[in-house]
Amino acid sequence: MQQLLDGIKSLPKTPDYTKINLLKNLLSRAFFEPISSDFRIIFERDPAARNWLEVLFCYPGLHALCLHRLAHWLHCRGVSFIPRLISHLGRFFTGIEIHPGAEIGKGVFIDHGMGVVIGETAIVGDYTLIYQDVTLGGTGKQEGKRHPTLGKNVVVGAGAKILGNIQRTRSRSCRRRFSCFARCPLKLHSCRNSRTHYLPQRNPFSFRTWKATRCRSIGNAHFALSH
């Protein structure tokens, strides 16, 4: 009996292929290629980027994206707590908050970056340029897809607020202090005086008189500008 037990102990242990595969995926080209694209795009879009050492250590947007890609990789594999902790640390060190569930393409450049918030179900396309104080957020407690989708080569200006499950198509820009709200079946009215688009209630003429006289209907649009 003792010889049998000794024989069992002497058997070679089978390797843990799950851990091996996770490590291979982490070190694969598919994981590092977006990070490499994020690094190279800075030299193309920022004339202040003079050398690789400066970009590597002095660009918080790059740091936030690197931390997010690690957190997103763990999030997609069902790891709890650690992805959110990485996201929180990234926010503390860079001033940029990106939820681990957000999908961010390659070659994304977050310029300056302070105050940028990207929600859980947001999708950011390849080669998107995002300036500081941008919010890609939700409008309430809806479940499912509740954050914006940005296409490829979209430029989001400083202070833009894009809220709800809406889409910005490729090669379009959101100007400075731009605000987007989720698509509404009612007609949207814009006030030229305040440069703000208001979603009307049941009575579209419920605005104050001085605003209503300056409002024009722009159809079933879903965007707004804020001053």
Structure, described:
Helix content is 33%, strand content 18%. It has 227 residues and is of the alpha/beta class. Helix 3 packs antiparallel against helix 5 and helix 5 (60-76) runs antiparallel to helix 6. The N and C termini lie far apart (84 Å).
Short descriptors:
227 residues, alpha/beta, six-stranded mixed β-sheet, four-stranded parallel β-sheet, 7 helices, 33% helix, 18% strand, globular
How would you summarize this macromolecular structure in one to three sentences?
The chain has seven helices and 17 strands.
Number of helices: 7
Biggest beta sheet attributes: 6 strands, mixed
In spatial order, strands of the major sheet run: 1-4-7-10-13-17
Strand content: 15-25%
Distance between the termini: 84 Å
Shape verdict: globular
| Unreliable sequence segments | 184-227
Reading the helices and strands in chain order gives: HHHHHHEEEEEEEEEEEEEEEHEE
Total strand segments: 17
Query: Structural class given helices, strands, pairing?
Result: alpha/beta
Radius of gyration: 23 Å
Which assembly state applies to the chains in this document?
A: single chain
Mean pLDDT over all positions = 75
Percent of residues in helices comes to: 25-40%
